[in-house]
Design brief:
This protein folds into 2 domains: about 140 residues, 3-Layer(aba) Sandwich (Rossmann fold), CATH 3.40.50.1000; about 70 residues, Putative phosphatase, domain 2 (DNA polymerase, domain 1). The protein contains 9 helices and 6 strands. The chain has a 6-stranded parallel β-sheet with strand order 3-2-1-4-5-6. Strand 2, helix 6 and strand 3 form a beta-alpha-beta unit. Helix 1 crosses helix 4 and helix 3 packs across helix 4. The termini are close together. Bound molecules: 6-O-phosphono-beta-D-glucopyranose and magnesium ion.
Length: about 220
């Protein structure tokens, strides 16, 4: 089946916000005398805000009631947004814009599938929001990655088959979600963190649309 759609995760794929999420979560964990390890941070990538808080509280042996959960999630989000507010167009990761332009020139649809409720704000700040045919974010579906719902939401909306789409993901939970939905998956990062992706790219620099399409021929 011919590829007709590219679906991009946002944080860590289009923009380096994965680092800002880590810094904000780690700041919270530090208040509970814990430093988030590299392995723990890999687990946090791609999953939603409340699930992340539950995991971190568990690692820190902190028990939170619902009001406290709301309060700490908001505190983390405010720290995160302080970084997001300073972002500009130049924060788009290298090679992303070229790939989007190439896709458009070849009549390939482009979409975002993110677990983040801040996805629209981030895309506005880097002046990329208008480029996409569709954006599914943390408000679009109930179940979060590794559930395939957010990717299936994109496929449904654009009326395409998962087998016609390539998903780009930096998170193990995101790779699992895309595979579960029957999508082709390119892992952004390294083989060690994303062993189940069909292909791995370190990033989009020096890679053309054709190179990517050829992976799946
Ligand atoms: C994902 C990130 O894209 O969105 C996670 O990989 C983040 O790190 C999640 O926790 C939820 O984001 P937000 O902006 O709604 O808190
Ligand atoms: Mg990501």
């Amino acid at each position: 089946m011919n590829i007709n759609t590219l679906i991009f995760d946002l944080d860590g794929v289009i923009v380096d916000t994965a680092r800002f999420h880590f810094l904000a979560w780690n700041k919270l964990a530090n208040t509970w005398n814990h430093t988030i390890t590299h392995e723990q941070n890999e687990e946090l990538k791609g999953i939603n805000r409340m699930r992340s808080l539950d995991l971190i509280a568990g690692w820190c042996n902190v028990k939170l009631n619902d009001d406290q959960k709301k309060e700490f999630a908001e505190l983390k989000n405010n720290w995160y947004l302080e970084q997001v507010k300073q972002m500009t167009e130049s924060d788009t990761l290298p090679g992303v814009k070229n790939l989007l332009t190439e896709a458009k020139n070849n009549n390939i649809k482009i979409a975002v599938a993110s677990a983040s409720k801040n996805a629209n704000e981030v895309l506005r700040n880097i002046n990329l929001i208008q480029e996409f045919d569709y954006i599914a974010d943390g408000n679009s579906v109930k179940e979060s990655k590794p559930n395939p719902a957010v990717f299936l939401n994109v496929a449904q909306h654009l009326k395409v088959n998962p087998a016609q789409c390539i998903v780009f993901e930096d998170a193990p939970a995101g790779v699992e979600a895309a595979l579960a939905g029957g999508f082709h998956v390119v892992g952004i990062g390294n083989q060690q963190s994303l062993p189940n992706a069909h292909f791995i790219l370190a990033g989009f620099e020096n890679i053309s649309l054709n190179d990517i399409l050829n992976f799946f021929k």
